[in-house]
Design goal:
Length: 427
């Protein structure tokens, strides 16, 4: 449910399948050869995996890139306060959310608190069946006359997305006794002081597991399909891919896509480029020109979800250029908004190459754009890797309720995306 958890689980999947840590190979002084399997991790929030191919790296790689951050509510740095004998946790939302969707649902908290001595305290509340759940309150309908007149963006305001944390006062405490009791409990459970929350990363996310969805069980309901459903299928494709492919297979999972791919762990970070430079160094070719040629000759699918056609909101789509649940992986030649602003807009030569890769392996695919022209829009990491003069095409799974606490995907599409990613890696 968090980028850190995704990285931990991806690392485990990689190691269970024989991938070794890139830094360990560098330290060993060994060189790399076709068939080697390597991974590298950036600040616990990015992971990149490589399956080294038989062709030299400079002839290009096949890259699947997805993001592992999802919209959520982050605890503020000074989060815990008390008001009228209720203790609350103050949050700041992350990514694009309809705020009214986050009230009166069971919530969990996952994340870390880092102490001054460098110790990491892992926090997980709300997903173990013996845990309590948390939540954000909403006004009862009986008193909501004024509230119901507001527009949807104002019904629940960002500053009111505060999580109810407790209601028992600490004995013999006069002021803020409920908060004092919460702090005492946090100290007992995690050995932390209030000040330690200054250096914490606590993410409030929907509680509960992903579930089968629909009477026919054809779909999966879960939090964070955008974009972990594409991250998982991309990761599995590289892990399950044959040993020593022709072109080096790569899966890169990035953070911060939902807020612009910025910062050290976002797609704009030099982490990916540095990892490739390390690989080239292990092939004795770590010069700038070879790096640039490697990136330029690389082909990528930007694995990110697409908006599924929702029959209840049909008006926002162009039906002949929409993604339908159950019709296979979705290729978005371009994303963006208004006049394709901010879009990668893949070259038709490359789109044709991808079509051939899919048809040769009989993979079901569809093409779409995000809604009607001028209806809205969105973006992915495609253009960022495109800056390397790399061919990139958006390719992912159609989602209903995107960015809601519960998102829906079709099982058939998830499997078809996995097959599509393998077909791409093999071409
Ligand atoms: Mn996405
Ligand atoms: Mn998104």
């Amino acid at each position: 449910k968090t980028e850190r958890r995704c990285v931990q689980l991806s690392k485990k999947l990689a190691e269970d399948n024989g991938f070794v840590y890139l830094d360990d190979v560098i330290k060993s002084g060994k060189k790399i050869k076709a068939g080697d399997k390597l991974y590298s991790i950036n600040k616990n929030k990015n992971i990149v995996l490589f399956k080294i191919g038989t062709k030299p790296l400079v002839e290009g790689m096949r890259v699947l890139g997805a993001h592992i951050d999802s919209p959520r509510l982050d605890a503020k740095q000074n989060p815990i306060y008390e008001k009228e004998s209720i203790s609350l946790l103050d949050t700041h939302y992350y990514g694009g959310v309809k705020k009214y969707q986050w009230v009166t649902i069971p919530l969990a908290i996952h994340g870390v608190i880092i102490k001054k001595d460098g110790t990491t305290v892992n926090v997980a509340i709300g997903d173990d069946e013996n845990d309590p759940v948390l939540g954000i309150s909403d006004l009862l309908i009986h008193l909501a006359g004024d509230q119901m007149q507001k527009t949807a963006s104002k019904v629940i305001e960002g500053e009111d997305l505060d999580v109810t944390f407790g209601s028992i006062p600490l004995k013999d405490e006069e002021k803020n006794a409920v908060k004092a009791n919460i702090l005492k409990m946090l100290n007992e459970k995690y050995q932390i002081e209030e000040e330690d929350l200054l250096s914490a990363e606590l993410e409030v996310v929907p509680a509960g597991k992903a579930r089968d969805y629909g009477f026919d069980r054809s779909m999966v309901a879960g939090y964070g399909h955008d974009d972990r459903v594409c991250a998982y299928t991309s990761l599995r494709a590289v892990v399950d891919m044959e040993e020593a492919p022709e072109y080096t297979s790569c899966c890169i999972l990035v953070d911060k896509e939902e807020i612009g791919s910025v910062g050290a762990t976002g797609a704009h970070s030099l982490f990916f480029e540095n990892a490739i430079l390390e690989l080239l160094n292990l092939q004795n070719t770590a010069d700038l020109l070879t790096l640039r040629k490697t990136l330029e000759n690389t082909k990528m699918l930007s694995s990110d979800v697409s908006a599924g056609f929702d029959p209840l909101f049909a008006g926002v789509n162009d039906p002949k250029n929409s993604a339908y649940l159950g019709n296979g992986i979705v290729f978005n030649k371009y994303t963006g908004s208004r006049g394709k602003s901010g879009s990668n807009d893949a070259n038709p030569e490359y789109v044709a190459w991808v079509r051939d890769a899919m048809d040769s392996k009989e993979v079901h695919y569809q093409t779409a754009e995000l809604g009607k022209v001028d209806q809205g829009g969105g973006g992915t990491i495609a253009y960022i890797l495109g800056n390397y003069n790399m061919n990139v095409l958006d390719a992912g799974i159609a989602v209903l309720n995107m960015h809601a606490p519960m998102e829906i995907v079709s099982k058939a599409d998830v499997y078809e995306a996995y097959l599509a990613y393998i077909a791409f890696l093999k071409k």
